[in-house]
Recover the amino acids of this structure.
């Protein structure tokens, strides 16, 4: 078995069950853990770091993270790096995790969001000044965020089994769940008191745990690229709805913007393929015609990629000693940049509950699972409904509906309660606040 981090032996404790049980001198001798996280991407890595305080004295939780891919944290960022929109609420979560001081200098703040509907009057403007926050959100290159997460993990006592994949999940007994893991030619049996699936939209753990999903194909695909413009963006983001789908421009460092350009595919992908095959100059010209020239002409485009869009939601988020989070639970349309931010709120709530379990405020893991489902229900439903409604409402070219949308955008811009609701939803603070979501460090108190 090959580990990226050194193994540090801690006494084994039961999360909320039989804490007076005899402690084994070497808990790793039988590959048993308190928490196993499957998936080492942004979500899984963030959860592991959020739980770091619980791995130290006097709690000494044994935590293991399994990922199918090697971490490539040493490569340098480039013009073509994809970016992630972090909401104001997510910045508070990273602050609570102790990472924000390192991350913030490498971000580009979003000071204003301009929302408009092509071909119709009316627009909504959300500003950090009106909402009395430093920024509505931040753009950070995914590689930069990944480097910081993996650097923190490498310096921690969290064990990592990488690369490896889960091939079986077994309901072992009333005290643990068993995983069969394949690493190279070796098969490993692991047990854990709590299993967390953060292994993405096509989650293997979710499938093996018997959790069903509902998939809604938007019949759209998104072209992703970094672009530059004649005029500086000055920290302004744009959400431009067109008859073909939304176009988002999010401010990056170096006067670049992260582009998400949606195309309908209900009549096939010929038009999409034609756009992808355009030369850079022709691509930028067509983008300008679709988006407009609020930032002048588009002057440069990086590498383009494209992927189909659908809404994937799980029928539930828990199973036997198992919690699914992030894209394993909910994969959203990128229209409002809510995907990772919603996942980070999963992380914040789950780490809060594990801390409460460690402090005996929650007695058993089944209680933790019930609490997690209950606490996350409203935020998940509201955010999914919010993004899904935006896509369906603004991707319709009905003329009457277009005028209604224009009136709605004007109303949101001018009616303070409506604007504040949209702003708080965009900032990720329109929901019950966990400790990390308030920017507070995770501490266990009895």
């Amino acid at each position: 078995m090959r580990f990226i981090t050194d193994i540090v032996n801690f006494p084994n404790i039961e999360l909320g069950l039989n804490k007076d049980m005899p402690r084994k001198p070497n808990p790793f001798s039988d590959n048993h853990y308190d928490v196993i996280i499957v998936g080492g991407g942004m979500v899984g890595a963030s959860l592991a770091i959020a739980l770091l305080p619980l791995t130290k004295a006097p709690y000494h939780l044994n935590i293991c993270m399994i990922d199918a891919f090697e971490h490539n944290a040493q490569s340098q960022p480039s013009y073509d790096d994809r970016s992630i929109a972090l909401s104001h609420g997510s910045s508070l979560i990273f602050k609570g995790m102790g990472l924000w001081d390192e991350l913030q200098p490498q971000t580009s703040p979003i000071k204003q969001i301009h929302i408009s509907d092509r071909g119709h009057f009316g627009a909504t403007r959300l500003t950090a000044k009106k909402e009395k926050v430093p920024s509505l959100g931040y753009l950070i290159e995914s590689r930069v965020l990944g480097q910081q997460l993996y650097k923190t993990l490498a310096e921690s006592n969290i064990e990592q089994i990488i690369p490896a994949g889960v091939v079986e999940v077994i309901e072992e007994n009333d005290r643990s769940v068993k995983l069969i893991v394949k690493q190279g030619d070796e098969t490993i049996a692991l047990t854990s008191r709590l299993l967390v699936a953060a292994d993405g939209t096509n989650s293997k753990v979710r499938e093996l745990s018997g959790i069903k999903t509902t998939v809604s194909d938007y019949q759209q695909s998104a072209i992703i690229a970094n672009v530059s413009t004649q005029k500086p963006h000055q920290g302004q983001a744009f959400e431009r709805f067109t008859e073909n789908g939304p176009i988002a421009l999010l401010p990056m460092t170096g006067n670049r913007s992260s582009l998400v350009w949606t195309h309908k595919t209900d009549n096939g992908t010929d038009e999409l393929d034609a756009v992808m095959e355009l030369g850079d100059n022709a691509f930028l010209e067509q983008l300008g015609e679709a988006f407009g020239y609020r930032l002048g002409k588009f002057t440069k485009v990086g590498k383009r990629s494209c992927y189909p869009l659908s809404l994937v939601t799980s029928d539930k988020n828990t199973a036997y000693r198992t919690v699914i989070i992030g894209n394993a639970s909910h994969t959203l349309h990128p229209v409002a940049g809510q995907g990772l931010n919603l996942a980070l709120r999963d992380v914040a709530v789950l780490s809060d509950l594990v801390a409460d379990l460690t402090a005996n405020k929650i007695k058993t893991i089944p209680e933790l699972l019930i609490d997690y489902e209950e606490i996350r229900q409203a935020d998940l439903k509201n955010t999914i409904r919010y993004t899904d409604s935006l896509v369906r409402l603004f991707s319709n070219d009905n003329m009457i509906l277009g005028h209604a949308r224009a009136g709605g955008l004007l109303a949101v811009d001018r009616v303070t309660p409506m604007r504040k609701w949209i702003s708080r939803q965009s900032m990720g603070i329109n929901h019950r606040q966990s400790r990390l979501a308030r920017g507070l460090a995770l501490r266990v108190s009895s």
Summary: Residues 369 and 433 are 18 Å apart (CA to CA).
